[in-house]
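Z., the sequence and structure:
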Amino acid sequence: MKKYITTLFVLSTTYLLAQQKQVVHNYSTIKPSEWVIPKNDTLDYAFNTYSGADALLLKRKIQNYKGASVAYPKSLKFKDGTIEMDIASPAGKNGFVGFAFRIKDAHHYETLYFRPGSSGTINAVQYMPEKKSEFNWWEYEADKYQSKATLPLTAWFHVKAVVKGPEIAVFLNNQPKPVMVYKNLDPSLKTGSVGFWLGNCNSGAYKNLVVGASD
């Protein structure tokens, strides 16, 4: 029954989004002047090659278990639609990499992130809303916020998310079945930008962000 409900949700959500007109925003080429990208005493970034592909590398100079950072286009307004990108974890098993959406600012957004070091376990994928100055991940460790997935340790993987109202379905590497369906997105975070997310690790690699924003 659970599998049936999940499949029904994915099909219905995909159908509804297909009926809506989407404006596609392609950020495969990033113009730093049009983005908010963290750069200070503890954070940095670079455009470089990772695993054979041009990428944006977000870098954390000082480890902080409460640390989380986002990089995102300034002008994008996203409520519902589709999000696609490629992500890799140069930090391997110590990596915490993902994406953020409905971003208001550096401390108010929804995030879905991946732990390659926990591949194959319930801790591989985690959802949480961020609404504090420090990243309070420990408040969202219940199983309902997490999901099992198979993740490469350091290689690229493709992510697609379908967002509709309070619901999100997340797919990896073009597989038809989502690795996570979550139906209680934070109601206080209604709209905002979409971008890349880096947790408490020394680096994350990101490329090919494409956002389909529904009217």
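Residues 2-19 form the longest helix (18 residues). The domain at 2-214 is CATH 2.60.120.560 (Jelly Rolls).

Let me know what you think.
H.
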